[in-house]
Structure formats: C-alpha cells, structure tokens
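Narrative of accomplishments. A recurring question from our advisory board has been how the design workflow behaves on a single, concrete structure rather than in aggregate. To address it, we present the structure tokens for one chain from the evaluation set, followed by the sequence designed for it. No filtering or post-editing was applied between the two.
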C-alpha cells in the first residue's frame, strides 16, 4: 500500500494533533493530511503526567474546540530561592487577565485534541516510521508494517525521540533528573503555583484540583535517593526543601523520574521540518516546552495553508527564530543560574534579592509575565 498526501505529520502528541486540527480549521483538505504515531491513542490518553498550558495556548486551542474541560487555572506564581531573602509574585489581576495559565493532564489534552480531528484525515496508529528518503520533490516514509507513505512535506512532531547518543548529550547539559508526583497538603492557596529554586534545581508545585502536581529537579544521585524513600520519609524531605508556604505535605502519589536536558537544534531539510519537542526540548522550569510547540503549530499551519512548497519551511524557521531563541535562553538561564551554587552563598543570596527587586520593577516583571503567557510575538 502506498498512500500519497501533501502533508505528513509524524507524532500524534499534543503538538502534532494541534497542527492537524489547525490545518483543517484553516481550510486545508483533510484528505491531503496524514497523521502518524507509534503509540495507540489509548496509551497517550492514559498518560498521567501534568502539563502547564499558558493563557496564550488556550487562545490557540479554543478556536479549534480542543480545550480540555478539566483545567485548573493558575492565577498567581510565587517564585523564590531557598535560603535567600526575596521573592516575586506574578498575579494575573495585575495584567487584567483571567489566568496566567492552566494545569491539565496530558491524557485530557490528547483526548480533547483527538476529538477535534477532521473526518477524512489519514490517521495511522500505531505506525512507526523506520526510514525516510527525500527525492524528486517528495518525501517517502517507510513504515514498520511494510506500508509506504509519500508526502510533499513532512513535519516531525514526535517529541523526545533523539536516539541514545543524543539522549546522553541531553543529560550532560544539565545533569538533572525530574521527579514528578502528585502531593496533598493541608493548605492549597487557590490558583497559586510555586517555583522554588534549590541548590540542585527548581522545585515546582502546580495546583491541580485539590492536589499539587510536583516537579522536583535534582542531580541524578539525589533523584535516585528520593525515589528510594518511603512515602513518609519523602514527604519529610520535601517539607524541608520546600518550606511551609503550601502548608504541611500529607500524602504523595506514585513517583516517576525523567532525565532532563536541552535540545535547541531544529533539524530541517528541503522538505522536512521539526516542531515542538522534536525541534527543541527545554528544561521544565517555567513550563514553556509545550506552549512553545503549540506556537510552532499555529504559525506553521497558517503558512502551510497558503502554500506547501519547500520554501515555506525555510520561511517558517526564520519567522520562529526570535520566539524559540528567547524562550530557550530564558529557561536555560533560569535552570543554570539558580542551581549554580549551594544555598546561602553570596551569589545565590544576590539572586534571591533579585527576585525581590523584580517586584519593585513592574515593567521588568510584566515582560516576564508576558513571555510566560504569550511568548515572543
């Protein structure tokens, strides 16, 4: 079987799904689009991870009727450095916004986007791509089941797939692991998210219903130790590291660990382009990865709706350079600088004071808030 389309999207995670739905919403014939994914939809829909979606991402997803119904608003973000005086509080009311962002489950986001896919679209899953060749103005994808798909352009949207060598490089960039879990406390300030910088990396708590979604970034040995602890000992360690701002930690769910790293090399060819995590994998500090990918999808869908010639891909790379570069630099700088030394050193104390000073500089804080909500436009 040889299927022929204009646009083949490899990867049916949130960014790939969003691109397919946005293309159809802009008038692209669904029969000219193929969406491939190596995983069955049931696997993605059951993914328990939490995602932080910015207010700008809601503006992108709502018009294609793919906003998840279960979304907890983030109305405040409290940023601090452990062991240092100073903090900053970003509040949506200061910018006349209903929310800075939202916390959703990965599975809920995927299900909402999947329901927005147009009829007539060639949906192939599970379908793993084993080989790709470009020739004579087209791209040929060889699938593991023996089928062949030919497309005018291919969009790589399969996040987190880099190969063993690239994965080792990513791990060396930060030498950090994220331990994630849901945690219960006896006091959840409505709508308030926390970003707490420690000497090994950020510790984030995101409000999600009546619990927090926790992302604790630490060195591999520390992450392994945290994973080895029983629930009671883990909660005690979390309390010591985070403090009392969210009350007393009382319960923790299943813990999972993910190696962290940076990939900012947007590999492209004459007829292949990468978006989302396939183009740039960011540190989870500030939760900007998926939001950047959705902005990729929005821009690319608008450009491909006008023309599917190969020059469109080069124009896309140029247009996305500022937003991608700014977001990568901000998240990378925050991840490195606040974990560059132990607590209470002069440098880290100065950084803590800088967070307090940010509250006294409304224009600077507004720039940071706008970047988190909307990116560089």
């Amino acid at each position: 079987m040889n299927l022929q389309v204009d646009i083949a999207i490899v990867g049916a995670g949130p960014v790939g799904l969003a691109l397919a739905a946005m293309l159809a919403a802009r008038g692209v014939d669904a029969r000219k689009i193929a969406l491939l994914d190596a995983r069955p939809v049931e696997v993605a829909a059951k993914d328990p991870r939490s995602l932080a979606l910015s207010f700008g991402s809601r503006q992108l997803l709502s018009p294609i009727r793919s906003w998840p119904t279960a979304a907890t608003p983030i109305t405040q973000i409290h940023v601090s450095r452990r062991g240092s005086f100073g903090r900053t509080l970003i509040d949506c009311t200061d910018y006349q916004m209903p929310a800075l962002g939202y916390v959703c489950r990965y599975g809920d986001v995927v299900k909402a986007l999947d329901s927005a896919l147009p009829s007539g679209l060639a949906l192939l899953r599970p379908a793993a791509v084993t080989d790709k060749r470009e020739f004579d103005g087209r791209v040929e994808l060889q699938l593991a089941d023996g089928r062949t798909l030919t497309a005018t352009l291919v969009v790589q949207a399969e996040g987190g797939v880099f190969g063993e060598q690239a994965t080792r490089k990513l791990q060396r960039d930060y030498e950090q692991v994220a331990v994630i879990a849901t945690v219960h406390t006896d006091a959840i300030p409505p709508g308030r998210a926390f970003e707490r910088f420690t000497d090994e990396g950020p510790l984030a708590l995101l409000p999600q219903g009546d619990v927090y979604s926790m992302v604790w970034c630490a060195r591999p040995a520390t992450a392994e130790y945290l994973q080895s602890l029983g629930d009671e000992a883990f909660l005690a360690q979390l309390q010591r590291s985070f403090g009392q701002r969210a009350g007393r930690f009382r319960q923790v769910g299943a813990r999972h660990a993910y190696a962290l790293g940076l990939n900012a090399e947007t590999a492209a060819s004459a007829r292949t382009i990468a978006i989302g995590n396939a183009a740039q994998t960011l540190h989870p500090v500030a939760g900007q990865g998926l939001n950047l990918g959705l902005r990729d999808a929005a821009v690319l869908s608008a450009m491909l709706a006008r023309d599917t010639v190969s020059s469109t891909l080069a124009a896309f790379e140029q247009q996305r350079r500022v937003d991608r570069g700014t977001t990568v630099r901000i998240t990378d700088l925050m991840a490195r600088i606040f974990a560059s030394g132990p607590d209470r050193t002069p440098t880290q104390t100065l950084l803590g004071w800088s967070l307090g000073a940010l509250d006294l500089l409304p224009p600077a804080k507004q720039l940071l808030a706008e970047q988190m909500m909307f990116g560089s436009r």
